[in-house]
Amino acid sequence: MNDGMLSQEEIDALLNVGADEDEGEESQQGEQTEQTEQTDVNDYLSSLEIDTLGEIGNISFGSSATTLSTLLNQKVDITTPTVSVIKKADITDEFTFEHVSIQVNYVEGFSGQNVFVIKSEDAAVISDIMLGGTGESPDDELNEIHLSAVQEVMNQMMGAAATSMSTIFSKRIDISPPSIKLIDSGSDENTETIQDTEVFVKVSFQLKVGNLIDSNIMQLIPVPFAKQLVDQLLNGPEEEAQEAQEEVAAAVDQLDKPKEEAPVQNIQTSEPQNGSPQYLGDRVDQKSSTVQQANFSNFEPVELNKNEQRNLDMLLDIPLKVTVELGRTKRTIKDILDLSSGSIIELDKLAGEPVDIFVNEKLIATGEVVVIDENFGVRVTDIISQSARLMKLK
Fold this sequence. Notes:
- By secondary structure, the protein is an alpha+beta fold.
- The protein has helices at residues 8-44, 47-72, 91-94, 120-130, 144-169, 223-235, 238-261, 306-313, 333-337, 386-393, and strands at 76-78, 82-87, 99-108, 112-119, 174-175, 179-183, 199-209, 213-222, 322-325, 355-359, 362-372, 375-383.
- Strand 10 (355-359) and strand 11 (362-372) form a beta hairpin.
- Helix 2 packs across helix 5 and helix 4 (120-130) packs across helix 5.
- It is flat.
């Protein structure tokens, strides 16, 4: 009997239908959002430009990761970059966390700027290691000393990236020392120093430093500068192409010039008779001509006279700086500041291991330390081979 009330089964069926409709709407909205983001990227960059920027970032940041690993003495991994586009008005909504912003200006090779963004907690770990800590319990707040440490790390990393870019673009590329800022969440200070740019290319990397950092580092590049990078990599610099064209044109002019100005002299031709060949110039009588063998001077070994030998001996009196190196080591700034009288610095060589002998800062031999009366000395045990010395000179 139906008294107008819904049964439990009918209620469950209605709830399921509503849930299915909500899921369908959310899925449709997600697809529309993803499609809109993809459309925004394609509005500013082609697929070739996206791939090229990713490859540039992959190569340059690969060398930066090596530099960071050396500075922190930790294993550093940087994944393949993800390239997207972000508008200047949306940057505030993008970085909703406290972060460190590092601006890099190109001073040679390119004319442009870009900004790197890392989370403040990641910067705290890096600064703690640079200042002699382990990175496991960094300070919660970053002061000027911490930011200076991070700035030096980024300076070394960007220097390595510029070197890699010099190899990629086959020209010298140099950057100015980066400027650094600690920016609160929701601030629009990231791009306030980069004027006349409303759209940026965002190149995002996943950064892993040992077991201490597993986060993202982002690079913001103005779209015009990004297109300039791609154009010079794919097409070459316009100035160099123009200079090459001018050099070719000048060479062609030099080739054509003698043909126009050279006077024609002593040119005689003989009419062919009975199939005989034609000659240019005076005909040579081969029967009456004399053929002689070419004579070459004999070069005897050069012997120096007394004056010349004396001049050569003057070189033997030139003083050279001889240095014996016991060993080397690397220490952090904190370790250097903690040095005092009685401190012991451990070197990278074992006791009894041969020491290096340098002449004018060039390695030429190895030896062992001896004591002569009350002075230290070194006994040469091995001379570096000639080929090895030549390689050291390069």
